[in-house]
Amino acid sequence: MQDEKFEIPHKYLLCGLTVLCFLFIIISMLFENSFGFCRVITDKTIAPMQKGITQVCDFVQEKINIWEEMQNLKSENDALKQQLEQLNLESKIYMEEQLELERLRELYKLDAQYKDYEKIGARVIGTGSMNWFDNFIIDKGSNDGIAVDMNVICGNGLVGIVTDVGPDTAVVRSIIDDSSNVSAIVLNSDKLCIVQGDAKSIADGYIKVLNIPKEVEVNEGDEIVTAAISDKFLPGITIGYVEEITIDSNNLTKTAKLYPAVDFENIHEVLVITQLKQSGE
Length: 281
Fold this sequence. Notes:
Elements: H1 10-30, H2 36-113, E1 119-127, E2 135-138, E3 151-154, E4 157-165, E5 170-174, E6 181-186, E7 192-196, H3 199-202, E8 207-213, E9 223-226, E10 238-247, E11 253-260, E12 269-273
Antiparallel strand pairs: 1-2, 1-12, 2-5, 3-4, 3-12, 4-5, 6-7, 6-9, 7-8, 8-11, 9-10, 10-11
Helix pairs in contact: 1-2
């Protein structure tokens, strides 16, 4: 068997040295004049040790202070981040409320513009397209008096027509849909034309006006409105404004680009005219 080597644990050795140091200090204080050699030993051994211990303690305390300061700064930073997030949220809510207020003001003006028609306000709650409101769903239905073929307006004019109704919702087909055709006239003219929905054209910011008689004077900026002859659309509702006119190849009619009276990328609230177009009206 190998001889086991006896070792004194470090903690016991440290405790012993500490006790020994204190003994030297006490002896030095009690016998200051009699035991000069104790002072010498104390000065040579204890003093440097005390200095080292003091430096270590100061270093540790400094690190503790720095750590506490960092923790305080982190807490303050977290609190400031929360305040900033709250302010950003409040700012977004405020901006959304301002935008909604502006839209409601526009609806109020539109309501006054077509004051002869009874209307119901509704919110858009769904759309069939990612970018354009060619077909969308509103939060009002038959329980609110909504019926198929009721005209829908917002912005500065005609949006479209109700095509399907449930108890609490309804589907609106807008005039930019490919299947939409609206009988119209140039304002202050009795000559008919057709406003045709076109998903490709609206991507460039306009819809088409077809079959304008060549002899009809049409200028850029002229207003196009729904015609009385339409079987579903009420007369006199603004559809849009002429931007560009070209003569068709048959040399009998014109085609125009129409800037719509409604922003079909952003529809949030609408007015549904509850009066249906009567035959012969």
